[in-house]
Structures are given as structure tokens and as C-alpha cells.
């Protein structure tokens, strides 16, 4: 029966997942909003311009999907083809081992009218037997090498003796069984029967799989029945061929033993600890322990298996009549030249050509040369095919295309092989010369009889084999439904890390792991509630203790939910930069909301679900108030953030919305602002007062590490095991205040974290944003640095720096010893300021590496950040980066032995690579100097010494400038030199091009230039999204002297400067500080004047400023003569000052009187006008500005004594900054006592502001200068010695050079006198400079290029693994149901249905705006009028979703299409009516389930059909409860009207029937939670 459709009731509509408090009723409802005047109805539409991170996103996604479809097909073809070739090659080799095998021989070359047969000689059989052995041993050698590498470079554990014996027994059985199969069974069977038999290798896995099933599995009884049938089918395969072929071929009686023993090798994958049998449980524990001891065990097992297979091979051959000494002696003969004997036969009258049993030999024989290389070629083909099948199969599993491109071809291998074998054998039997030109005529498969081929389909053999194939498919059914994560490691994909080459398809099916990662189920999410110590932990969820837990541990499955804290550090960002960061955060908020709502309302489990919270740490967030020096207010950058957030939300959601004003919370470190974003995640801005807590980025990082990981996690009242799991799945997303990224970029980094638990940090691809030549230079520099340098570090070791602008750090790694605690170390030495404070991100990564963690780079995770646009700002930034980079790398290299021992990912070759780079950095200026010297010689045709002089003089002068002048002058001179060098470099490029044209393409310079340019171009082509980053390469080339010579010198010489250098603004000063500055300026001015010549001559004639002169002469400012000078009269000035002071005192007293008479400031305008008038008059009276400030200060002190008393303030109760009207009067709240105590203790121990001790500052400055001097001296000496040695060698290049073998010029001269022809060769000379340059930089370039290729392949795999295909080509049979439709497209449905734009069937943008032809028809006035009447759009995504979700009707789908954005999906993929029907069914199922849960709670259980939902539909939905993070029970949530009703989201009665927008009702002030507690109650709560 069809389900009875039920309209959602008021209870259904009002159900909300609001955790605690609505966003704000009076902000979103519009009922309290003042209606705009009729003249003020014009509007600014939300911009349609996309962020850089979203540009061309749709085109890119489509391209990736097309590529993934191609990869689907190509991988399927390769895996299937390689598997068939590998299987066919093994059968071909075993077909040559039977001694009495005779096949027809092609008579094309020996006699067309005759018939010949041929038998394989003993030499050939020996060669093929050795080929089978080598084919088996190659994967075992790979296992041995891999095991040794991991045990040597990483950690290893010794297994218990019982585990080792079990593995030893199983692997020995498997090896012996495989030897019996290869050397005894298959040679006695034809290839078709042999291929069929390989489907019967699953007996032991089938038995263990059946015994491992437990009561918790669904439909256990039916599965056990099918298991028993599959095992029975496998057993029939052991007896069919012995019964049929046993009389003629005794070797087939070994089939039961060989198949059973071979299947023992895959036991481990099919045992489980959840089995009800104790024996299987024990084996399951062995399996678990093997995860840690596998590689140590298989160092010995791989060797033992090779020895066992070899001995078994000799034993089987001996039993079959082969002499073992002859077998060993004929090894060389079998693979070298030998003869093949061909016998002429005459068929009998009753036999056919293919039936040679009755053929009569004529006695004539012919010998031909054997194609002895054939065995080697077949062996090579088999090895390559098996490896390719395994590699591409693993690739398919990693990128999540396992079903079609792994499981399907693995199961098709035997059917396709049998089909091809039947066809090939049929063709060969019909014509022995059919394969004459491809396969040697004396070699072929052991063909089945002709009648077998003709009757294969109709005979019983095909049906029996079909049972074997189906039973193998059932036993390996797990390969169709993978559970592993994207880009899973090999150890998570396969039980044994390598494969079985001789049975490749069975190995890939039975060795693929059955037990992937357990998914977090919806019932786990349902029990999540707050367990934290403070109210801000409600987003980061923890499961209750009552849920199911791991045996022996109090760990909940929900503890492994990904928790992401976005931690942004801000300082003096511009509005545009803030906008990009806020838009990125709001996009993450929108994505998290979609995943949460999909799990809650559509009842799906999202493997990529995460909890999210944002923390912004604002340095120097306060400044002195204009009213009083003792009060602080937030600075203009904080106010800019508050103003920008609404605009950012409008950009993202494409409709004009307003975020609720932030909650204001005083804090021991300053203050806190808390926003609730439209997706219900929190964004918390921590405002730092540098007078209360240390400022700068490193200390902000210490703040959020200790707050989020120390206080929020470690102080939870839960078990240690749960904290361990939560710490491993908690990540800190470090951001800069100007970063721009997409949620997918974060997800890609999370994928890396899930893939490798030893991964401590992961960074993405950083793209510089801005305009101008400096930005263009950085575009190329960043591109090359990421394409080559970071990719190389990732592939051969670890990334050394995960930049704080966009990186993901694992909480557990940061909490480890010597990481977070050591990161709090105060800089007490000069080198600490360089290493710790100038490069904090690199130092943090260095600490992680030294603790053994890995740092990786994901090129697919794109982020965009603003970079310096000016030359000075760029130099200042790199002045910090260069010394800190060198200091941290030197720290790592200095302790490399310990690091190699601790860190499995850092090896000696990697340390050697880093030493090469460090040497190149140190000798970089000398190398560039030598390059310039050589370029001058080549381009300007001057000698070496002249070129040396021209280049050394400006460099020495620049060094002198850097030592003696201020930074501004240094940068100015650097700009001038950079410009000059750029012009010179252009001339050098032209001269070099001419020189290359003369020397030819074979010259060393040309080869290196082509190689470098080619590598850059190939890298650009492999990064198509970033291809145009290669264009600014010409600017990079012109800037080489500036960036690698001048910049290095500037950075090293200014090593003692530890200021930040960028984004610095002038700090607001107090009045006393300004007065002191003025006094100091006046004193300095007087002192300078007195020290001058005029001051010396004028001594004793007055003080200067107070003197007057009757006559004054001057000559263009060169000199000045003053005659008749006398002191000025000050009486008039003093009288004016007294009058001004009296007037100011009267005005202050009048203001005090007005405050008492008019406390509500009704006449404030008048007072302000009077104040302005007084100020102007006073400005006229007080001529001296210093006197004005002095009098104003005195007046303020006087008014304080006579006016109203100043309000008493407590920084943790009523700080002055919270009264700032620019904070939009949000709710006032206070910290919990526990959190307040935490912050006080943290500040007291680690973050207390460092006192400005002048003596300590002088000591640090002196130490920094000393460190600078030592570094410069060492740096200078290294480069001087390098330049001296290479330059002296260059001067003697005629004696010391290398003749270059390429580009040789041949000179032919003819001597007319002697009639002789002289031929001479002129070689190009590789000079010392070129020799150093080529061998050093070319080696680094080759390493980086190869690493880039491998890393690019991994990146493409990561992108493909993260791409979902919603096309018909990717649909399965199960995807056709309505439940499957919702499950597959749940996130897309929610993302469209939670859109705030168009919630009331009204779009913000007129559809004719983008159509030039319809401008004249644009309804501008109507749109303005409609907009002025429209209510403010609701600002929460979940309410928007629920409004549309509960209004869905499949019957009226067309009428509701406009208000249901789910129809905005691709209509080619999803039918509109099907989507609406599926969502309606899912909605009714969820509602019925909730009511059933409610009725059970009330003790009144009713059938689901009473609610309009059939039993089938109710069963279709999973039996889970909804997640309520606020801790509100289901009974309270659904019980009207006494339940937990969200008044802020209650619909008005008039809006229930017309499906209008959900309005926010006005809450009475008595019920509002946004009222701040009084001061007395606040004090009582703190006691």
C-alpha cells in the first residue's frame, strides 16, 4: 500500500537543533527595526564577484570528474589486462613442464606437405621451472627489502614466540601447497582446467570467515548458510578433476592437498576477535599483534618462503622423475643455445590433425635452434604484468574506485582468461601455424581435447566451474564494499604488504583487508552532549558514558570525530584582508552546518563530518581612550573586524544578512568577543592587551595551544583513554588574518592526517595575492618553491616548515614532550630572538620533527594570502625569514644523529640533501658574484680582473651602507642597486644568448639552460591551474642578483634587528608621553642649535626663541645676520594664558552642572557646539601648543577634583572598553571561575608581559650585535675563500679545465705549399665556475624534478580520491531506491535547501540584471518597493533548511519548485520528482521515528502506521535518535507546550498555512538570556 501522506504539524516545524540560545530575535525578525523612509529605499546588492579561491571552481570540478571517469576506465582495463597476462603467463610456463607433452609443429619452414610433432626437451623444461621459481621469488625479495627498510629506518617490534610459530606454520603450508600446484598439479591439467582450478583456493578463508561471524551481524543465519554453500562448492573443486582425470594423470590427486595448503596462507584476513569461538578469537589477537610485528617477522619469513619453495620444487621434480643434479647443472643450458628435435608423423586413417595419440612416426627428425630467450621474455612479462596489476589495483583502492576498477577486474580475470585460452587453443588446434610469427612453434599451452572445447558451454564442466567462481566471489565479497579512508596506506589496504605473483587475482581478492575503519554511526552522534568545563565546549562534542565502548577501555566511537579549531592570528590587517579570512571561516561554517543537518535530519553518516570552532587572537587590540589615559578601548582594527563580518556573510550567502552582535566577555588577558555564525558554529575573538599579556604571534600560539589543548581538553572530566583518542583527532587549523581558502582545502589536509597517525602537521599550497612587480616575482618564487622544494622535502623526507598562514596541526603531536612546553621558552639569548621569535612556524615544525613526527605538503589544498607589494616591505619580511630559516635548519642539522634515530621519515640521504641546500644558501652570494663576473666577461668582452673590480665595488659599498646607516637608507640603496643589476642582467641575458648561439646547443651552458627551463615548463604543465605562474619567470631571472646577493647581505648584516618590520603602525600615546616627546624634541632642537656654528656665535646673546631682533639679513638660507637683538616681552602672553585658563575652568564647571540637571543628555548638541566654540577661541588664545596641552591637563585634573566622581571599574567586571558603542551593544557575559583561574595561572607562568628592563635590553642589543658580527665574519670568510679559490682557478682555466665532449668544432685547413690537409678539433672548455655550477645545481635540480613527478602523481591521486561522481556511469544497482538517492546526494540536498538566499521565494538580484537586452524592461521601481516591504531574511541555516524540508511535497513539486533549491541540482543526474519524493519519504520516516521514541518515553507506544507512515518506510530509516548538543531530552523537545520551545524561532500563527518565512518572535526582556548580571551578582559568583 502506498503511504498515507501527512502534513507536518506545528511540532515538526518548530523542532530545532538550536543548542542553547538563538542568534538574536530583534536582529533577524525586523519587528523592532525602524522602517526606512520613503526616500531611503535604494540598495546595494550583494556582489557576485567570487574570491580567488572560488574562481573557475566549477570548471575545475567538471574537469576533475571527467579525468576520474577516464581513470576509472583506464585502471579497470589495466588491472584486468595485467591480471589476464600474469595468469596466462603462469599457465604457459606450467604447460611446458610435462615430460610427455607433444604438440603439432608448424610445417611452413620444414615441409608444407608433411605433418610434424614436437616435444619439449629437458633443457627447456628446466628453464621453465626456473622461470616459475623466479616469478615466485620476486615479490618475496620485495617483501624482504621493504621489511628491512622499515625495520632499519623506522621502528620495529619483536613478536611473541607463539605468534612467530603460527605465522611460520601458515606460510610454510602456503608455500608448499603453491609448489605442489605449480610443479605437480597444473602440468598434468590442460590450461582451461588449470585456470578453473585456481578459483578453488578459498577453503580455509571461507571456513574462518564463517566461524568469525557473531550475533551482532545482521542476517547472520542467512550469511552462514551461504558460507556453507560456498565452502561446499570449494570442496567440490578438490575432487572433480581427480575423479575425472585421476586414472590418466596421477598428479591431479594432489589437488586437495595443494589447494588446501595454499589457502592456509590467507587465514589472517578472515579471523576476528569478535568470533564466538575461543580458538578463532585467539587467532584474532595474533592478527592484532601482527600489526606491530609484521615487518620484523617477514624479514625472516620472506627468506624462509624462498628456501621452502626452492626445496619443494626440487622435491616435486624428483618425485616426477627429474634428476636434481641434472636440473641444477642444466641451468645455463636451458637459458643458452640448444637444439629442438622435430619428428615427422603420419596421421592414421581414424585420427585428425589435432589428435596425435594415434599418429604414426615416420622416423625422420629435424633439429632446429631453440629460441632460448623466450623463457626469459615470458618471465619478464609475467613479473611486470603481476606488478602492474598489483600497483594499479592498489591505486584504485587509494582513490576510492575499488568497486569498478579493482573488484570487478579481479573477479573477471579467470573468466576472461578462460575465454581467451579456449579461443587460442581452438585456433592452434585448427591451424598449427596460426601463431607462427609470435610464439615459437614448439611452445604452446597444454590444450584441452577438441570435444572439450566444442562442448564447453553445454557441458557440465562450465556449470561446475561457475559454482567455484561464485563461491570465490562470495568469500571475497568484501572487496566490493571498501571501508578504508582516502589514500589509505598499504598496511591498511592489504594484510601482507606484497602480492603472490603466481596467483595474482586470488592474492588481490583474499589479501585485501576485510575490516576497514569503523564508521561513526548516527547513534553515536545522538548521545553527544557537553562535558566541558565551560560553555564554549558545546560545539566540540563528546559521547556519553552510557554508550557502547571498546572492550576494556572507556573510549567512545564519537571520540574519534574530527574536531577542527581554526586559530587565526591578527594584528594590523586591512579590511580587504579581513574580508577574505572571514569569508573563508563563514564558508567552513556553512559546510559544517550542511554536514550536521544532513546527519540529523536525513539520517546519513558522513565519514567527513567534523566539529568546528573559530578563534581569532588579536594582538595589540586596545588603545588609550580619548577621554582618559587610564581607560582602554578597542582599536580601529577590532572595530573594522566587527563592521566587516556582516559584509563577509553577505558575500558568502549572496543575500543581505546581519550577524548578531558579539557577546562581550572581559578576560584576564583583555577581552573576548563571541559571535554565533549562521551555521551555528562559534567565532571567538580574543582581544589581547599587551599590558596584561605578551604580544606577538608566538605568544598568541601559546595562548590557543594551552587554552584548547590544555584547558579545554585535558581538564575534561573523562577517562585518559578518551582524552588520548580525542587528542589524536583534534586539529588546530592555523590561519593568518588575510587567508582565503575553501572547505575542500581543509578536508584534504584532514585526509592526510587520517591516513598517517604519525603526521604532526600538514600544509597546503600557498598562493601570493596582490599586484605589482614584487607580487609577480613572488608568484614565480612561491610556485617554484612549492613545485620543487616542498614536493622534494615531502617525498624524500619531511617538510621543514608548515607555514602558520594555512596549516593543520594534530593536537596530540603538539601536546607531546619537548613541543608545546618548550615552545613557551622565553628568548633570553641573542640566537633565541632569531630562531624563536623571527621564525616561530619553522621552529614549531623543527620541534615536531625532533620528536619523531612527520610534516607533509598537499599541493591540492590551495590557500591564498596577501604578500608584500612594495620593495621595502618585501625586504623587511625576508630579513626575518632568512636568518630564522638558516638558524632552524642549522639546529636540525646539528642534532641530525638524534633526529634520524627518533624520526622514521628523516634519513641520512635527506640530511645530505639539506646540507647541500644549506651550503648553496651560505655560498649563494659568492656564487652569484662569480656568475656576474663571468657574465660581464661574456657579455661586455672585458677581462676577468676588470669584471671583478666592477662587481666588487658596489657590493662592498652596499655592505658599508648596511653597517653604518639606518634601514631606510639601506633599502633605498638596495632598490637602486637592484634596478641597476636588473638592467645589467638583461644585457647579460642578451650576451649569453649570443654566446650560446656561437657555442651551439651542445655547450654546457645551453644544456643546463634547456634542462632548467624544460623542468620549469614541465612543472608548469603538470600544474595547469598554476601554469601562468611561469610567466613572471623573467622578472625572477632579472632579480637574481638582488634576491640572492643583496637580500642575503642585508639580512645577515641586520641580524641584530628583531622588529617585525611589516604591518607596523604608530601606537597611540598618552598625554604625558606626548608632552614628554615634545619636551624631548624641543631639547634636541635647542641642543642641535647650540652645537651649530650660529649657536656657538650667538652664545650669551639670548636663548633663541624668546629673542627679538630689529634687523635681519639672509642670503638664500646660507647665512643669516641679526642686529639689535633683545628679549621679548612676555607679559601680554601671560595675561592671555590666564584668561584662557579661567574660561576653561568655567566651562568645566558648567558641564558638571548640566550633567546633574540633564542626566540623559537631551541638550548634548548644544554642549558640543559650545565646546567646539570654546576650543576654537582657545586655539586663538593659546599660541603655544605645548602650553595648550599643559593647560588642558591641568584643567582636567581640576575638573576631576570638582566634578562628579569617576566610576570605579574592575577589568573582569565592567572594563571601559565594553561600553564602546562600536561593539553594537551585544550581550555581556562572564567567564567561568575555572576558566578565569586558568588564564590567570597561564599568564603568571608563561605569558606575563616582559618588563622593559633597560639594562636587560642593552645586554640583549649588545649580544645581538655580537651575534651579527660573528655571523657576518663567518659568512664573509666562507664566501671570500670560495670566490678566491674559484676565481684563481678561472684565471688558470687554460691549464685547469675539462674538455666538453659535445659541441666540438672541426677546423679543416689546406696548405697549398705542402698540399696537406690539416684537421683540428676545438673543444668547448668546462671552466671551474661552470664545473661547480653544473655539478652542484644540476644535481639538486634533478633530485627536485624527479621528486616533483612522484609528488604530483600523489597529488592527482588525492584529488581523484576526494572527487565524488554523481553520474549514471558511477551508479550501482542499490542506488536506484529512494533511500539510496537521499544517502548519495544528502549533502548536496542540504547545501541547496539551507541557502538563505530566496528563502521567501524572492531573489535579491533581479534576473534581468545580467541581460543587456532587458535593461529597458527592468522593473526597478517595483523591485525597490518590494524590497522596502520585505522582512529581514532569517540568519540561520538550519531554520532555512527546516522550512523547506517540512514544506516538501512530491505531489505539488512543480508548484513548490521555486521555493525548493534542491531542484537547483543537475537535472540530468537527478529527476526532480524523484528527489522530492525521496526527501518526503525520508522526512516522514524521521518524524515517525521521533514520535515513536517520544511515545516510548511517555509509555504510550503506537504503531508507525498511525502517523501516516507504513511499516516498510519506518524500517527504511535507521533506528537512531537525533543529536541534541544542548542536552535537551527528546521528551522535552517534542512535548508541547511545556517542552523546550525555541521562542526565538516560533512561527506566527498566520504563517503556518501559507509556508511563509519563519519569523523570530520578540522575546520579553524578563525572559532574555542576553541581560548582563549586575555587578553585585557578578562579584558573588566570583567569590
List keywords for this structure.
disordered N terminus; four-stranded antiparallel β-sheet; 1583 residues; single chain
Fold blueprint:
Blueprint: H1 10-14, H2 25-28, H3 57-95, E1 102-105, E2 115-119, H4 122-153, H5 161-185, H6 191-197, H7 203-211, H8 220-245, H9 255-264, H10 278-319, H11 324-329, H12 331-334, E3 339-346, E4 360-369, H13 374-398, H14 402-430, H15 450-454, H16 460-475, H17 490-493, H18 504-510, H19 522-526, E5 528-529, E6 542-543, E7 562-570, H20 575-601, E8 610-618, E9 622-624, E10 632-634, H21 636-653, E11 663-667, E12 670-676, E13 682-688, H22 697-714, H23 720-728, E14 730-736, E15 740-741, H24 743-755, E16 759-769, H25 773-796, E17 806-810, H26 811-814, H27 820-823, H28 830-837, H29 840-850, E18 854-866, H30 871-894, H31 896-902, H32 908-922, H33 924-940, H34 944-964, H35 967-999, H36 1004-1022, H37 1033-1038, H38 1040-1053, H39 1071-1091, H40 1093-1097, E19 1107-1114, E20 1120-1127, H41 1131-1157, H42 1164-1181, H43 1185-1202, H44 1233-1247, H45 1254-1291, E21 1298-1311, E22 1316-1326, H46 1328-1361, H47 1378-1393, H48 1420-1429, H49 1437-1445, H50 1472-1498, H51 1511-1516, H52 1530-1534, H53 1575-1582
Parallel strand pairs: 7-8, 7-14, 8-13, 16-18
Antiparallel strand pairs: 1-2, 2-3, 3-4, 5-6, 9-10, 11-12, 12-13, 14-17, 15-18, 16-17, 19-20, 21-22
Helix pairs in contact: 3-13, 3-14, 4-10, 4-13, 5-9, 5-10, 6-14, 7-8, 8-9, 8-16, 14-18, 20-21, 20-47, 22-44, 25-46, 28-30, 29-30, 30-32, 30-38, 32-33, 33-34, 33-35, 33-38, 33-45, 34-35, 34-38, 35-38, 36-46, 41-42, 41-43, 47-50
Amino acid at each position: 500500500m502506498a503511504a498515507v501522506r501527512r502534513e507536518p504539524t506545528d511540532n515538526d516545524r518548530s523542532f530545532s537543533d538550536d543548542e542553547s540560545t538563538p542568534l538574536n530575535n530583534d536582529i533577524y525578525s525586523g519587528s523592532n527595526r525602524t522602517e526606512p523612509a520613503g526616500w531611503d529605499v535604494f540598495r546595494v546588492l550583494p556582489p557576485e564577484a567570487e574570491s580567488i579561491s572560488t574562481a573557475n571552481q566549477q570548471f575545475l570540478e567538471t574537469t576533475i570528474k571527467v579525468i576520474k571517469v577516464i581513470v576509472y576506465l583506464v585502471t579497470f582495463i589495466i588491472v584486468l589486462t595485467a591480471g589476464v597476462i600474469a595468469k596466462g603467463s603462469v599457465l604457459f610456463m606450467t604447460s611446458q613442464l610435462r615430460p610427455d607433452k607433444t604438440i603439432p609443429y608448424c610445417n611452413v619452414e620444414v615441409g608444407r606437405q608433411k605433418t610434424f610433432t614436437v616435444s619439449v626437451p629437458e633443457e627447456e623444461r628446466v628453464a621453465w621451472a626456473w622461470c616459475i621459481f623466479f616469478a615466485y621469488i620476486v615479490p618475496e625479495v620485495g617483501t624482504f627489502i621493504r621489511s628491512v627498510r622499515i625495520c632499519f629506518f623506522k621502528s620495529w617490534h619483536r613478536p611473541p614466540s607463539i605468534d612467530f610459530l603460527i605465522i611460520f606454520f601458515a606460510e610454510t603450508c602456503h608455500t608448499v601447497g603453491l609448489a605442489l600446484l605449480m610443479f605437480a598439479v597444473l602440468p598434468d591439467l590442460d590450461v582451461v582446467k588449470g585456470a578453473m582450478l585456481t578459483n578453488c583456493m578459498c577453503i580455509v578463508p571461507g571456513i574462518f570467515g564463517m566461524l568469525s561471524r557473531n550475533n551482532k551481524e545482521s542476517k547472520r543465519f542467512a550469511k552462514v548458510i551461504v558460507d556453507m554453500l560456498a565452502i561446499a562448492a570449494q570442496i567440490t573443486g578438490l575432487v572433480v578433476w581427480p575423479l575425472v582425470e585421476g586414472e590418466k594423470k596421477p598428479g591431479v590427486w594432489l589437488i586437495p592437498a595443494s589447494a588446501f595448503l595454499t589457502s592456509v596462507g590467507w587465514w589472517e584476513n578472515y579471523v576476528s576477535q569478535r568470533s564466538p569461538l575461543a580458538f578463532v578469537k585467539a587467532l584474532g589477537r595474533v592478527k592484532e599483534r601482527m600489526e606491530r610485528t609484521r615487518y620484523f617477522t617477514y624479514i625472516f619469513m620472506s627468506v624462509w618462503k624462498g628456501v621452502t619453495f626452492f626445496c619443494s620444487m626440487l622435491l616435486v621434480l624428483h618425485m616426477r622423475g627429474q634428476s636434481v643434479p641434472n636440473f641444477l647443472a642444466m641451468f645455463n643450458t636451458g637459458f643458452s643455445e640448444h637444439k629442438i628435435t622435430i619428428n615427422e608423423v603420419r596421421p592414421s586413417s581414424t585420427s585428425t590433425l589435432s589428435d596425435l595419440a594415434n599418429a604414426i612416426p615416420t622416423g625422420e627428425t629435424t633439429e632446429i635452434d631453440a629460441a632460448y630467450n623466450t623463457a626469459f621474455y615470458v618471465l619478464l612479462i609475467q613479473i611486470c604484468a603481476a606488478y602492474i596489476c598489483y600497483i594499479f589495483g592498489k591505486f584504485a583502492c587509494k582513490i576510492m574506485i575499488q568497486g569498478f576498477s579493482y573488484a570487478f577486474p579481479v573477479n573477471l580475470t579467470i573468466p576472461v582468461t578462460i575465454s581467451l585460452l579456449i579461443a587460442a587453443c581452438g585456433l592452434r588446434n585448427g591451424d598449427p601455424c596460426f601463431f607462427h610469427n609470435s610464439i615459437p612453434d614448439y611452445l604452446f599451452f597444454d590444450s584441452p581435447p577438441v570435444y572439450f572445447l566444442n562442448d564447453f558451454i553445454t557441458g557440465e564442466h562450465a556449470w561446475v566451474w561457475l559454482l567455484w567462481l561464485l563461491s570465490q566471489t562470495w568469500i571475497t565479497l568484501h572487496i566490493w564494499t571498501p571501508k578504508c579512508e582516502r589514500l589509505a596506506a598499504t598496511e591498511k589496504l592489504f594484510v601482507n604488504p606484497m602480492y603472490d605473483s603466481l596467483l595474482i587475482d586470488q592474492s588481490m581478492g583474499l589479501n585485501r583487508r576485510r575490516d576497514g575503519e569503523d564508521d561513526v554511526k548516527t547513534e553515536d552522534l545522538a548521545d553527544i552532549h557537553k562535558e566541558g568545563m565551560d560553555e564554549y565546549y558545546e560545539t566540540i562534542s563528546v559521547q556519553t558514558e552510557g554508550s557502547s565502548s571498546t572492550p576494556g577501555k572507556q573510549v567512545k566511537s564519537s571520540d574519534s570525530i574530527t574536531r577542527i579549531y581554526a586559530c587565526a592570528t591578527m594584528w594590523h590587517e586591512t579590511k580587504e584582508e579581513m574580508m577574505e579570512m572571514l569569508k573563508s571561516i563563514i564558508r567552513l561554517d556553512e559546510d559544517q552546518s550542511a554536514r550536521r543537518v544532513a546527519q540529523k535530519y536525513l539520517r546519513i553518516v558522513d565519514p567527513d563530518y567534523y566539529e568546528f570552532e573559530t578563534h581569532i587572537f588579536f594582538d595589540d587590540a586596545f588603545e588609550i581612550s580619548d577621554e582618559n589615559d587610564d581607560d582602554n578601548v578597542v582599536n580601529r582594527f577590532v572595530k573594522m573586524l566587527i563592521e566587516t563580518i556582516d559584509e563577509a556573510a553577505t558575500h558568502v550567502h549572496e543575500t543581505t544578512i546581519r550577524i548578531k552582535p558579539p557577546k562581550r566577555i572581559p578576560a584576564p588577558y583583555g577581552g573576548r568577543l563571541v559571535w554565533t555564525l549562521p551555521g551555528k558554529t562559534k567565532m571567538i575573538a580574543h582581544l589581547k592587551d599587551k599590558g596584561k599579556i605578551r604580544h606577538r604571534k608566538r605568544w598568541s600560539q601559546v595562548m590557543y595551544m594551552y587554552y584548547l589543548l590544555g584547558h579545554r581538553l585535558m581538564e575534561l572530566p573523562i577517562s585518559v583513554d578518551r582524552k588520548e583518542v580525542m587528542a589524536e583527532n583534534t586539529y588546530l587549523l592555523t590561519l593568518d588574518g588575510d587567508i582565503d581558502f575553501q572547505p575542500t582545502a581543509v578536508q584534504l589536509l584532514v585526509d592526510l592526517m587520517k591516513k598517517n597517525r604519525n603526521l604532526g602537521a600538514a600544509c597546503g599550497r600557498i598562493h601570493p595575492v596582490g599586484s605589482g612587480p614584487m607580487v609577480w616575482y613572488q608568484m614565480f618564487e612561491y610556485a617554484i618553491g612549492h613545485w620543487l622544494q616542498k614536493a622534494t622535502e615531502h617525498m624524500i623526507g619531511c617538510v621543514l616548515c608548515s607555514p602558520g598562514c594555512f596549516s593543520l596541526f594534530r593536537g596530540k603531536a603538539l601536546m607531546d614532550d619537548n613541543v608545546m612546553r618548550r615552545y613557551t621558552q622565553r628568548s633570553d639569548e641573542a640566537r633565541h630572538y632569531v630562531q624563536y621569535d623571527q621564525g616561530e612556524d619553522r621552529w614549531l615544525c623543527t620541534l615536531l620533527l625532533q620528536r619523531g613526527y612527520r610534516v607533509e605538503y598537499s599541493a591540492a589544498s590551495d590557500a591564498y594570502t596577501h604578500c608584500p607589494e612594495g620593495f621595502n616591505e618585501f625586504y623587511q619580511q625576508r630579513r626575518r625569514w632568512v636568518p630564522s630559516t638558516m638558524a632552524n635548519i642549522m639546529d636540525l642539522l646539528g642534532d641530525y644523529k638524534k633526529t634520524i634515530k627518533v624520526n622514521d621519515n628523516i634519513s641520512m640521504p635527506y640530511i645530505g640533501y639539506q646540507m647541500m641546500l644549506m651550503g648553496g644558501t651560505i655560498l649563494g652570494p659568492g656564487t652569484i658574484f662569480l656568475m656576474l663576473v663571468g657574465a660581464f666577461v661574456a657579455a661586455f668582452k672585458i677581462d676577468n680582473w676588470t669584471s671583478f673590480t666592477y662587481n666588487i665595488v658596489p657590493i662592498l659599498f652596499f655592505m658599508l651602507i648596511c653597517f653604518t646607516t639606518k634601514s631606510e637608507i639601506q633599502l633605498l640603496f638596495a632598490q637602486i642597486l637592484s634596478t641597476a643589476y636588473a638592467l645589467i642582467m638583461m644585457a647579460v641575458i642578451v650576451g649569453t644568448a649570443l654566446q650560446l648561439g656561437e657555442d651551439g646547443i651542445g655547450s654546457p651552458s645551453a644544456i643546463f639552460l634547456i634542462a632548467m627551463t624544460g623542468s620549469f615548463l614541465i612543472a608548469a604543465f603538470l600544474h595547469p591551474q598554476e601554469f601562468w605562474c611561469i610567466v613572471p619567470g623573467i622578472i625572477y631571472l632579472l632579480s637574481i642578483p638582488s634576491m640572492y646577493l643583496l637580500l642575503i647581505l642585508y639580512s645577515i648584516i641586520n641580524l641584530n634587528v628583531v622588529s617585525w618590520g611589516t604591518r607596523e603602525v604608530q601606537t597611540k600615546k598618552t598625554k604625558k608621553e606626548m608632552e614628554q616627546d615634545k619636551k624631548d624634541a624641543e631639547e634636541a632642537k635647542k641642543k642641535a642649535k647650540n652645537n651649530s656654528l650660529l649657536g656657538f656665535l650667538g652664545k650669551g646673546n639670548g636663548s633663541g626663541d624668546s629673542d627679538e631682533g630689529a634687523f635681519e639679513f639672509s642670503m638664500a638660507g646660507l647665512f643669516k645676520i641679526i642686529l639689535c637683538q633683545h628679549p621679548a616681552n612676555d607679559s601680554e602672553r601671560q595675561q592671555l594664558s590666564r584668561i584662557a585658563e579661567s574660561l576653561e575652568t568655567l566651562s568645566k564647571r558648567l558641564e558638571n552642572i548640566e550633567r546633574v540637571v540633564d542626566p540623559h543628555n537631551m541638550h548634548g548638541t548644544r554642549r558640543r557646539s559650545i565646546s567646539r566654540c570654546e576650543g576654537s577661541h582657545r586655539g586663538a588664545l593659546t599660541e603655544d601648543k605645548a602650553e595648550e596641552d599643559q593647560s588642558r591637563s591641568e584643567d582636567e585634573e581640576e575638573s576631576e577634583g570638582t566634578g562628579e566622581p569617576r566610576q570605579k571599574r574592575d577589568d573582569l567586571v565592567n572594563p571601559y572598553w565594553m561600553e564602546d558603542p562600536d561593539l553594537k551593544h551585544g550581550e555581556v557575559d562572564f567567564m567561568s571561575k575555572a576558566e578565569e583561574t586558568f588564564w590567570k595561572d597561564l599568564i603568571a607562568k608563561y605569558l606575563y608581559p616582559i618588563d622593559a628592563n633597560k639594562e636587560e635590553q642593552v645586554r640583549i642589543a649588545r649580544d645581538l650585535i655580537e651575534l651579527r658580527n660573528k655571523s657576518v665574519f663567518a659568512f664573509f670568510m666562507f664566501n671570500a675563500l670560495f670566490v678566491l679559490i674559484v676565481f684563481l682557478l678561472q684565471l688558470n682555466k687554460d691549464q685547469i679545465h675539462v674538455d666538453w665532449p659535445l659541441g666540438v668544432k672541426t677546423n679543416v685547413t689546406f696548405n697549398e705549399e705542402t698540399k696537406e690537409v690539416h684537421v683540428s678539433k676545438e673543444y668547448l672548455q668546462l671552466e671551474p665556475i661552470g664545473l661547480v655550477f653544473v655539478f652542484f645545481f644540476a644535481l639538486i635540480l634533478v633530485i627536485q624534478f624527479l621528486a616533483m613527478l612522484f609528488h604530483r602523481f600523489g597529488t592527482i591521486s588525492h584529488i581523484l580520491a576526494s572527487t565524488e561522481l554523481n553520474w549514471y556511469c558511477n551508479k550501482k544497482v542499490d542506488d536506484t531506491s529512494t533511500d539510496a538517492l537521499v544517502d548519495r546526494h544528502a549533502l548536496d540536498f542540504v547545501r541547496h535547501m539551507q541557502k538563505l538566499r530566496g528563502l521567501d521565494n524572492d531573489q535579491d538580484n533581479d534576473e534581468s540584471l545580467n541581460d543587456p537586452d532587458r535593461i529597458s524592461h527592468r522593473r526597478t521601481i517595483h523591485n525597490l518597493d518590494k524590497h522596502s516591504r520585505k522582512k529581514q531574511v532569517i540568519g540561520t541555516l538550519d531554520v532555512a533548511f527546516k522550512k523547506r524540508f517540512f514544506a516538501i511535497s512530491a505531489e505539488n513539486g512543480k508548484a513548490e519548485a521555486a521555493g525548493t533549491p534542491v531542484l537547483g541540482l543537475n537535472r540530468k543526474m537527478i529527476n526532480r520528482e524523484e528527489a522530492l519524493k525521496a526527501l518526503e519519504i525520508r522526512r516522514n520516516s524521521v518524524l515517525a521515528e521521533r514520535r515513536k521514541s517520544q511515545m516510548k518515553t511517555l509509555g504510550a507506544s503506537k504503531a508507525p502506521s498511525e502517523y501516516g507512515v507504513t511499516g516498510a518506510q519506518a524500517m527504511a530509516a535507521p533506528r537512531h535518535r537525533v543529536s541534541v548538543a544542548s542536552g535537551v531530552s527528546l521528551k522535552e523537545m517534542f512535548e508541547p507546550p511545556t517542552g523546550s520551545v525555541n521562542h526565538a524561532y516560533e512561527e506566527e500563527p498566520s504563517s503556518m498555512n501559507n509556508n511563509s518565512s519563519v519569523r523570530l518572535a520578540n522575546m520579553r526582556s524578563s525572559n532574555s538570556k542576553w541581560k548582563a548580571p549586575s555587578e553585585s551578582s557578578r562579584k558573588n559568583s566570583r567569590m
